[in-house]
Request: fold
Amino acid sequence: MSNKENLFAVFRHEQSEAVPWVPFAGVHAGKLKGYSGREMLTDAEKLYESLLEVHRVYDPDGMPVTFDLQIEAEILGCDLVWADEAPPSVVSHPLGETLSIPGAIPQPTDGRLPLVLDVMRRMKTAVGQDTALYGLVTGPFTLASHLRGTDIFMDTFDHPEFLHELMAYTTRVAIAVADHYIDAGMDVIALVDPVVSQVSPRMFNKYLSGPFKSLFDHIRARGVFSSFFVCGDATKNIKVMCETGPDCISIDENIDMVSAKQITDSYNVAIAGNIPLSSTMLLGTQQDNMKFVVDLLGKVDHHNFILSPGCDMPYDTPVENTIGAMQAVRETEAIRQLVANYTSPLDDIDVELPDYDNLERPLLEVFTIDSATCAACGYMTAVAKQVVEGMDGKVDWVERNSMNRENLARLKKMGLSHLPEIYINGKLAYSSNIPSAGELRAALEKLL
Reply:
C-alpha cells in the first residue's frame, strides 16, 4: 500500500499494513522554511513551500493543508489579530449585540479562500498520489462562537430558538466550505470544533447533533472521508460524537485514548491522536516523543487507529521531536528497545505554588493549553479577563498556559489534567466548562 492507501484502509475500517501517521503541522510548517505563521497563511508560495517541506521531512500518510479556524470567521466579518508563531485569533464578534442571522455564504473568491484553494490544487498535483490531503473546516459550533462570542453559552437558556437558527446557518457555511475543499481535491474533510468539549451531552444532542449528522452525511455523499476533530476534555461527548456518523474522531491529550477507543470501536469509528503538544512535542526531547508513541502503540488495538499530534503542533516544535514520533510509528520495536530505560528530564523540575490561604486578594487562575491557539482556552480566558477587569482591582487573575516548562511542572504538582480549567484561590471552579460572565462574577463576589 502507498501511505495514502494505508490511511484510507483505516477510514474504511479495514486492516491496514501499519498504523498511519498524520502530523498536524499547521503554522509549524512555516517554521521548517523560516516563515512566520502570518507569512505562511497569507502567501500562497510560502504556504506551498512549507507544506512540501512537511511532506519531505515527516513522511506523512496524511497531512492538512492549513490549520486555521479563522478563515470562515474572517470572511463573515470577525476581526483578527495576527501572531508570528500561531494562527490568527478572533477579537470581535459581529453578532455580539444582535440576534439577527446573517445570510452570506463563503464563495471561492472570498477572503483567503482563493489562496487556500490554489495551494490545495497544487499539493494535490505534487503529492496527492501517495499522501492523503486534509481540508480542515471550522465546525459549526466554534464558528457560531466566533460570531456570537461567549454569550453563546447563555443563549442555550435565554435564546434557544436563535441558537438553533445560528447553528443552521453555520452548518450551511461549513457545507459550502467543505464543498470548495472537496472540489479542490481534498481526500478528508475534518470538521474542527474545539468548543464542543465545553458542552454537555444533553446540550450536544439538543443543538449540535443534527447539524453534525447533516454535515457528515453530506461529506459522505460527496465521496470523501470525514473526521470530527475536538480539543479539550470531550470525554463525556465521545459517544454522542460517534452517533453523528463521522469516519474518524480526533482527540487530544486531555482524553484517555484507551477508554475513548473502546467507545469509538463500539461504533466502528476510527480514532486519531493524541501525542501531547506541549509536554512532549514542544518541550520534550526526541526520546520523550519516541517513548510516548511506543507506549501508546503498546496500549491500543491498532485497528481503526491513526497516530497524530493531539492538535495543531506548536510553531517551535523541534524537528527532531516530530521525526522521533515518526520513527517510533515506522520502526516501533527497534525504538521500543532504544527507549526502554529512558526517564524524562521534565520530571526533575519543581515549582513553588502561591500561598493560597494568605492572599491579599482572591486569585483566579486560568490553566490553558494556550489561549492564542486553543479556541476553548481563548474563550475561557476572555470571560475571566472581562470579569476581573470589571471588578476594579479587587481580584487578581493570571493565565497559566502549558507552553513553558514551569507551568507544566505547576500543572503536574496541582494534579491538573483536563484543560482548560479555572481555579479560584487554588481550588477547581470550572473544568472544560466555560462559565458565563455573570456566573463567574457571582462566584468571585461571594468570596469578596
Q: What stands out?
A: The mean pLDDT is 93. The radius of gyration is 21 Å.
